[in-house]
Amino acid sequence: MTNFGPGDHYKHEMNINISEFKKVADIAKKASDIPKPLARKQSKKVHIELEAVEVISKIAPSILYHYWTFNNTVPGPFLRVREDDTVELSLHNDKSSSHSHAIDLHAVTGPGGGKAVTEVEPGETKTLTFKATTPGLYVYHCAAGNPATHIANGMYGMILVEPKNGLAKVDHEFYIMQGELYTKGRLGKKGFQKFNSRKMIDERPEYIVFNGRTGALVGEGQLNAKVGDKVRLFIGNAGVTKISSFHIIGEIFDKVYPEAAISNPHKNVQTTLVPAGGATMVEFKVDYPGNYVLVDHALARIDRGAWGILNVTGAKNDKLYSGKSGDKASEKKHHQEH
């Protein structure tokens, strides 16, 4: 298996037969696919199984990519444990994999965040046991070989260590991770696209996306809520090179837990930074119906894929938000409807 030394990863060039790898129709992890809050007051031993699987899926229509994943999605599963839980995590590497893989969980205190005891060759399984000592929201990612390559190809996710008293109750929780894809072909080039390590070293991603691909949080993948609902977003940034400036157009975050430090929230925040390899939590109440656009407010990245939709349904409140058209017919119609 490939093992890179300093400066070697820019030489990484893979020639693969895509017919040899599993096909996944949709690589994107659903933002709503998240375990429910833990309704228990005591710690326990928690068993988690993850599988490193390399698959072929679409970045965008007619654009294929060789993704490296945890459990066939990007990001991988949202892991949820409680402070003081003992976690037994088994990592299996599918026998079809082209590389060894491993896991580094930022919630772990110990060599490599778990990497030192979890590096697995194709077909192999290893188990890490750790104590979840510190509450917070943490990134996990593959750390085998050159970690940047494995992360850029899709091997990342998040783990929440709930505090002993849990988190405040909300109506909806959603899971969002920003990532970067470095393809040999230019942005929008059709067909199968190889990973390009030179672009990664030069920090020039062709795609910057939420949840694995362009359009993952649009249409069937959009976030949904109703007027009056309280919403919590768990937001991570896999990197490997860009800081995210997360913003929702038309919303103000009631609370932001900067860099996922859950003990000291900030209030009334417009845009929050999410560092590469970091996370944040935001909470807000939705007060007016319509489509709200989720973005990295480095707005040129919208054209590279970094956007999504929060759709809010319910009654309008004209005292909160309204508009009048200069067209008298439209204005008359507006008053008749209200």
Task: Describe the protein in words.
The chain is mostly beta strands and 338 residues long. It has 2 domains: 9-168, Immunoglobulin-like; 173-313, Cupredoxins -  blue copper proteins (Immunoglobulin-like, Sandwich). It has 4 helices and 21 strands. The chain has helices spanning 115-118, 147-152, 197-201, 328-337, and strands at 22-23, 45-60, 63-70, 79-82, 86-93, 104-105, 125-131, 136-141, 156-162, 172-181, 191-193, 207-210, 223-226, 230-239, 244-249, 253-257, 266-269, 271-274, 278-285, 290-296, 307-313. Strands 1, 2, 3, 5, 7 and 11 form a 6-stranded mixed sheet that branches. Strand 16 and strand 17 form a beta hairpin. The termini are far apart. Residues 1-9 have low confidence and may be disordered.
Mind telling me the CATH superfamily name of the largest domain? Answer: Cupredoxins -  blue copper proteins
Largest sheet: 6 strands, mixed
Number of domains: 2
Outline type: globular
Order of helices and strands: EEEEEEHEEHEEEHEEEEEEEEEEH
Q: Radius of gyration over alpha carbons?
A: 21 Å
CATH fold group of the largest domain: Immunoglobulin-like
CATH architecture of the largest domain: Sandwich
The CATH class of the largest domain is Mainly Beta
Counted beta strands: 21
What percent strand?
35-45%
The termini sit apart by 67 Å
